[in-house]
């Protein structure tokens, strides 16, 4: 004769086992599909790369630009005229009107891949404001004889300002790509919401 208590607990155990399997599937799916997207974001190219200007040790390339949205990362395009340079690349973002330093990033030049945007995170990220003007400076500190060149447009881009290197005017606007929004957080929240609804159903 079957125990009535055992009969009562069987559906509960089955439901619990189903929930555990579902949660395991959710975790595996998140790791495989959602997590790789967490660091991705929405970005836009401010100026295209058509030419390049050499930056020697200690020289500073500067660009003033106007941007309304948040600035999370700045991508710059570089050209390598010779061997891969080594050393630190210092990128600083200022308020062009007040001169206040807003953010900076220091990266290594050993990992720069030529002819594509090298993304540099800003610490801290900068909150956008309509019509805000920025001044971006790029200063390499080489540890070898190899140097790099920063990409810019062929001639000053329409409605943009002129780039300079250590005070010397360059006929172009620095090539930049700005990330203004992270999409990973939205993906994670949406995924968890759907997974939670599925578990309830």
Description:
- Strands 1, 2, 4, 7, 9 and 12 form a 6-stranded antiparallel beta sheet that branches.
- The two termini are 34 Å apart.
- This protein has 201 residues and is of the alpha+beta class.
- It contains 2 helices and 12 strands.
- Mean pLDDT is 82; it is low at 34-39.
- The chain has helices at 4-34, 184-200; strands at 41-47, 51-55, 61-66, 71-79, 87-95, 101-108, 117-126, 133-142, 148-152, 163-165, 168-170, 176-182.
- The chain is elongated, with a radius of gyration of 25 Å.
- Helix 1 (4-34) packs antiparallel against helix 2 (184-200).
- It is 24% helix and 41% strand.
Q: What is the gist of this entry?
A:
The chain is an alpha+beta fold.
- The dominant shape is elongated
What is the end-to-end distance? 34 Å
> How many DSSP E strands?
12
Helical/strand content category: alpha+beta
- The helical percent reads 10-25%
The profile of the biggest β sheet is: 6 strands, antiparallel
Oligomer: single chain
The average pLDDT value, as a whole number, equals 82
Unreliable segments of 5+ consecutive residues: 34-39
**What radius of gyration results from the CA coordinates?**
25 Å
H/E topology pattern: HEEEEEEEEEEEEH
* Number of helical stretches of at least 4 residues: 2
Estimated share of beta-strand residues: 35-45%
Highlighted features:
12 strands, six-stranded antiparallel sheet, alpha+beta, 201 residues, elongated, single chain
Topology of helices and strands:
Layout: H1 4-34, E1 41-47, E2 51-55, E3 61-66, E4 71-79, E5 87-95, E6 101-108, E7 117-126, E8 133-142, E9 148-152, E10 163-165, E11 168-170, E12 176-182, H2 184-200
Antiparallel strand pairs: 1-12, 2-9, 3-8, 3-10, 4-7, 4-9, 4-12, 5-6, 5-8, 10-11
Helix pairs in contact: 1-2
